[in-house]
Specification:
The chain has one domain. It has 146 residues and is mainly alpha-helical. The chain is globular, with a radius of gyration of 16 Å. It contains eight helices and no strands. Helices cover 60% and strands 0% of the residues. Helix 2 packs across helix 3 and helix 2 (38-45) packs antiparallel against helix 7 (109-131). It has helices at residues 24-36, 38-45, 58-70, 79-83, 86-89, 95-107, 109-131, 133-141.
């Protein structure tokens, strides 16, 4: 068994048909976030907003909400979709905990956005490095951006 290096459980592909994940498409999102370190960077960036008694890391909570949105959610209550797959996402913040985090970030939205965008920039650089320069050049030539 390998020790996890991020906020999300390690996944194993199993073709026996047991321990199925109903949100199989989200596996790619979680695996990508872990590989490029998005969970770790958001955790580090949002450390100033973590209350001393918090059980759930603010960076993980925010990323869990992003996963919920990617799965079609549009409000805090839609975290229930993410919460329903603990083998994929691990512990997920409760609705009140998430509401308190959003309120805390809203006290100084400029600082929160700077922290989040700084984490995203670090991860974007890491992702391009992992992809190699040819992928970045091809994407830029096609008019894409990330």
């Amino acid at each position: 068994m390998q020790k996890p290096t991020g906020s999300y459980p390690s996944l194993l592909v199993d073709t026996t048909g047991k321990d199925l994940v109903s949100q199989a498409g989200a596996v790619v999102l979680v695996a990508t976030a872990r590989k490029v370190g998005l969970d770790r960077e958001l955790s580090a960036a949002l450390r100033p907003w973590k209350s001393p008694w918090a059980v759930i890391d603010p960076g993980k909570a925010l990323l869990d909400m992003a996963f919920a949105v990617a799965l079609g959610g549009d409000c805090l209550a839609d975290l229930a979709v993410v919460r329903s797959e603990p083998a994929l996402y691990g512990p997920v913040a409760s609705d009140p905990t998430m509401s308190r985090l959003v309120s805390a970030l809203a006290v100084d939205p400029g600082a929160a956005l700077i922290a989040i965008n700084t984490a995203r920039a670090k991860v974007r650089t890491r992702a391009w490095k992992l992809a190699g320069s040819t992928h970045q050049t091809t994407t830029l030539m096609l008019g894409g951006h990330w």
